């Protein structure tokens, strides 16, 4: 972990942390304050939603990052995230959940959450992902061309042209591979369910009864063709792209 790089990305990021468990809230708040300079804390979903709205009214901007528990009194994580997305569809959300709460994650994945962590938190993995998320926020705030997705230092996806290049070489992709790459890179880090990917990739093939086997075969061929494009299988949830950090 490059902590200097992490600090560079996180120093101006505004975070809202929503958690109803008092002990965990205090412990995790300390961790967040070691990473971010600006952290607001809410004691449940209702408090989190109120703070989210008041922050926007006061600053005319939104929190860069929301980190929230799922099961909370008054307003749970699903309702909280759904309402936030209605207010700001670009909101970046990280969900914290106990392993017993996996059944709650699917609705959140369908809503479009980008990351989740299970409790107890593996802090090494958390920091690695926070570095990636913060890199995205940092570049967005710099108004970096959002049509360009840097997968590695040389591997680049142009969302507008729907072309993948490695250095100066354009990589030839099939129509289905283009749809797959475009989907998983559209929102950096978002998890897509298998059913969602299948419906998008085989949308026009009404005579093809595509299933998870077709999807796995397509992903396998793409991985062989482009080893640097990491497509991670989140067990029981779906697939996401894993992007490298590019130092600007």
Set down the secondary structure blueprint.
Layout: H1 3-10, E1 14-18, H2 22-35, E2 38-42, H3 45-59, E3 65-69, H4 77-87, E4 92-98, H5 102-111, E5 115-119, H6 123-141, E6 148-150, E7 155-158, E8 163-166, E9 169-171, H7 175-186, H8 194-201, H9 212-225, E10 230-234, E11 238-242
Parallel strand pairs: 1-2, 1-3, 3-4, 4-5
Antiparallel strand pairs: 6-7, 7-8, 8-9, 10-11
Give an account of the 3D structure.
45% of the residues lie in helices and 21% in strands. It is α/β, with parallel strands linked by helices and 248 residues long. The protein has two domains: 3-141, Rossmann fold, CATH 3.40.50; 148-242, Winged helix-like DNA-binding domain superfamily/Winged helix DNA-binding domain (Arc Repressor Mutant, subunit A, Orthogonal Bundle), CATH 1.10.10.10. The chain has a five-stranded parallel sheet with strand order 2-1-3-4-5. A four-stranded antiparallel sheet has the order 6-7-8-9, covered by helices on one side. Strand 3 (65-69), helix 4 and strand 4 (92-98) form a beta-alpha-beta unit. The protein is globular. The model has no long low-confidence stretch (mean pLDDT 87).
CATH topology of the largest domain: Rossmann fold
Instruction: State the helix count.
Output: 9
Report the principal-axis shape.
globular
Radius of gyration: 19 Å
Runs with pLDDT <50, length 5+? Answer: none
Mean pLDDT: 87
Q: CATH H level of the largest domain: which superfamily?
A: Response regulator
Task: Name the strands of the widest sheet in spatial order.
Answer: 2-1-3-4-5
Compute the number of structural domains: 2
Number of strands: 11
Q: What is the CATH class designation of the largest domain?
A: Alpha Beta
Euclidean distance between termini CA atoms: 17 Å
Q: Quickly give the CATH architecture of the largest domain.
A: 3-Layer(aba) Sandwich
SSE series: HEHEHEHEHEHEEEEHHHEE
Structural class per helix/strand content?
alpha/beta
The largest pleated sheet is described as: 5 strands, parallel
Percent helix range:
40-55%
Strand content: 15-25%
């Amino acid at each position: 972990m490059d902590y200097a790089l992490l600090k560079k990305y996180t120093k101006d990021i505004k975070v809202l942390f929503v958690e109803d468990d008092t002990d965990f809230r205090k412990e995790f708040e300390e961790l967040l304050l070691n990473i971010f300079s600006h952290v607001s804390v809410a004691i449940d979903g209702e408090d989190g939603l109120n703070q989210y709205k008041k922050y926007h009214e006061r600053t005319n901007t939104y929190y860069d990052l929301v980190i929230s528990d799922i099961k909370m009194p008054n307003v749970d994580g699903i309702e909280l995230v759904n309402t936030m997305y209605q207010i700001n569809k670009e909101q970046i959300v990280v969900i914290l959940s106990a392993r017993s709460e996996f059944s709650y994650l699917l609705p959140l994945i369908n809503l479009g959450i980008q990351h989740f962590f299970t409790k107890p938190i593996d802090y090494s993995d958390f920091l690695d992902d926070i570095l990636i998320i913060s890199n995205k926020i940092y570049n967005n705030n710099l108004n970096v061309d959002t049509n360009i997705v840097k997968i590695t230092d040389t591997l680049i996806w142009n969302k507008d042209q729907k072309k993948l290049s490695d250095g100066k070489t354009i990589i030839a992709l099939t129509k289905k591979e283009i749809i797959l790459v475009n989907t998983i890179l559209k929102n950096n880090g978002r998890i897509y369910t298998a059913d969602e990917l299948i419906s998008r990739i085989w949308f026009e093939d009404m005579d093809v009864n595509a299933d998870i086997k077709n999807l796995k075969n397509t992903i396998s061929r793409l991985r062989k063709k482009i080893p640097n494009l990491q497509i991670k299988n989140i067990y029981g949830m779906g697939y996401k792209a894993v992007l490298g950090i590019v130092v600007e």
